[in-house]
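Q: For a teaching handout, I want to show students what a protein-ligand complex looks like in token form. Below are the inputs, and the small molecule is S-adenosyl-L-homocysteine. Please produce the holo structure.
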Amino acid sequence: MNDIRDLTREELATELAAMGEPAFRAGQVFAWLYARGARSFDDFTDLPKGLRLKLAGRFGLRPLEAEGVLRARDGTEKVLFRLRDGWGIETVVIPAGERRTLCLSTQAGCKFACAFCASGGHGFKRDLVPSEIVGQVLHVRASGPGDLTNLVFMGMGEPLDNYDNFVRAIRILNDPEGMGIAARRMTISTSGFVPGILRLAELGLQVNLSISLHAADDGIRSRLMPINRRYPLAELLAAVRRYLSLGGRKITFEYVLIAGVNDRLSDADGLARLGRRFRAKINLIPYSPVEGFDFRRPSPERTRAFLRRLEEKGASATLRRSKGGDIRAACGQLAGRF
Ligand code: SAH
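A: Here is the structure, written as tokens, with S-adenosyl-L-homocysteine included.
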């Protein structure tokens, strides 16, 4: 049985119409589910009892179950959810001044096996359905102080490889009768899954797109990211070009700096060229340690020199301070277990 939160408002309206209900019911149900965070059909107190029973007979409504929360010294929190079939996923809450950003998972495990990332370490388990993606936001919103200001789809999994569920989740989160989170406050990160980028381009959502680039040449990129053998840089960049030409917002290139692998000044030159060519913002992320991998992050001096070189070459770049390292909540450390 589908969870009722697997449906967009339009889909719910169609279902309700088939049940003989008037059109405005979908908005009412959405308000209960998302604006007010109802956790059971009994909570829908201004809806007729008969309708509540019908809904309960037709759909599930099962909030995600948090198995535990870890809190880092810097205030970052990691929530481990246990899915109904036993798999674990993680969500990270990142406070930064006035902002409170949520880093969401879209799959349990990951197929893409990037050499530096923990999420692919135990293989792929399954796609998350919309209620499991949206459920992460509902849970954190209900449990924490303050509003969530930004959503980043940068947790476990490859959002564009779970395209339909992921887009449905965005529509639900974005819906003005539900949570009303603006698309421009959402960022999608992709390892470079070209078919997904092309579909996203056609859709024209005003979300932010981040490309996990990590190398500006095919040799290094293919060694780090197996996906590059399927969709090499030329194809990836053509897809990015198309995305921008169809009205996509400015993009970001993410670049994990790994000592001795992609941190030479000549690497910075190649990256700066791409940054300029696509008017992209470059986000440098010093490698976060992952158990069992023997990569290292470059020294702070070398990192600064890399950043300076990008700036000298006219690229727009920032250094991301990865948070939550002491609870394994930093970029690339999510493995679905504590
Ligand atoms: N699959 C998507 C979404 C995950 S985003 C993607 O690849 O973009 C997670 C981000 O963290 C990506 O940019 C990823 O490359 C980066 N990352 C992975 N492992 C890391 C590590 N060990 N240190 C720092 N960043 C890492």
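A: Two things your students might notice: The chain is about 35% helix and 20% strand. The two ends are 30 Å apart (CA to CA).
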